[in-house]
Amino acid sequence: MAKNRFVEVYSQGITNVEKIIVDTETGVNYLLASHDLRVGTGLTVLVDQNGKPVVTSVE
């Protein structure tokens, strides 16, 4: 079976949802957030205090 490109490493909430998703090829972390999953969802790159993308080490 092929390795998943994106993996969820953190999840919070049921209606107001926040998730952190990691790209397993680049290690870049993304924040997925939704006030109500039926209305819409936003996705953005997580950045550190210097504005650089947060990157998780990938093996």
From TrEMBL:
<feature type="domain" description="DUF6440">
    <location>
        <begin position="5"/>
        <end position="56"/>
    </location>
</feature>
<protein>
    <recommendedName>
        <fullName>DUF6440 domain-containing protein</fullName>
    </recommendedName>
</protein>
<dbReference type="Pfam" id="PF20037">
    <property type="entry name" value="DUF6440"/>
</dbReference>
<dbReference type="InterPro" id="IPR045515">
    <property type="entry name" value="DUF6440"/>
</dbReference>
